[in-house]
C-alpha cells in the first residue's frame, strides 16, 4: 500500500541502489505500521532538477499511503528518509522535500482492482 517515489538529480551509476531501496522499504513499513510486503519504493536518478536556483544534489519525494500517516509519523519519515539520502547519495537534508498523501483504498489500484 505505501508507495514512496523519490527523484534526485544525483546519478545512480555505481551506487548500491539495493541498499537504498531495502533501507527505505523497511523504514517506511516500520514507521507507518504496514507490512513490508506491501511497500513499494521507486528511485529515479539523474533527473534534471533545480533547488534554490542551483543544481547541487537535491531530491524530491512523494509518499502515498492508505492510512498510517499523521504529523508525528510524517516528521519521523521525513527525518529517516532524508538521513538515508544524505548518507547514501550525499543529498543534504536541507535539499530534500517529501510530500505526504493519505488516500482511500478505493483510490489505490492493486491486483486488477482497488484496495
Secondary-structure map with pairings?
Layout (H helix, E strand, L loop, with lengths): L2 E6 L8 H16 L7 E5 L14 E7 L5 H19 L6 E7 L6 E2 L2 E2 L1
Parallel strand pairs: 1-2, 3-4
Antiparallel strand pairs: 1-3, 5-6
Family: Belongs to the MIF family.
InterPro entries: Macrophage_inhib_fac (IPR001398), Tautomerase/MIF_sf (IPR014347)
Protein name: Macrophage migration inhibitory factor
Provide the succession of SSEs.
Answer: EHEEHEEE
Radius of gyration, whole Å: 14 Å
Strand content: 25-35%
**Which outline best applies?**
globular
Helix content: 25-40%
Largest sheet: 4 strands, mixed
Terminal residue distance: 8 Å
Total count of helical runs of at least 4 residues: 2
Amino acid at each position: 500500500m505505501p508507495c514512496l517515489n523519490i527523484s534526485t538529480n544525483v546519478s545512480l551509476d555505481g551506487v548500491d541502489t539495493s541498499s537504498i531501496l531495502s533501507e527505505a522499504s523497511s523504514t517506511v513499513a516500520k514507521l507507518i505500521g504496514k507490512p513490508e510486503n506491501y511497500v513499494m519504493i521507486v528511485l529515479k536518478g539523474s533527473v534534471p532538477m533545480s533547488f534554490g536556483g542551483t543544481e547541487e544534489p537535491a531530491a524530491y519525494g512523494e509518499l502515498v499511503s492508505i492510512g498510517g500517516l499523521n504529523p508525528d509519523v510524517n516528521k519521523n519519515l521525513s527525518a529517516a528518509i532524508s538521513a538515508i539520502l544524505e548518507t547514501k547519495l550525499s543529498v543534504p537534508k536541507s535539499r530534500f522535500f517529501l510530500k505526504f498523501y493519505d488516500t482511500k483504498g478505493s483510490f489505490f489500484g492493486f491486483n486488477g482492482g482497488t484496495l
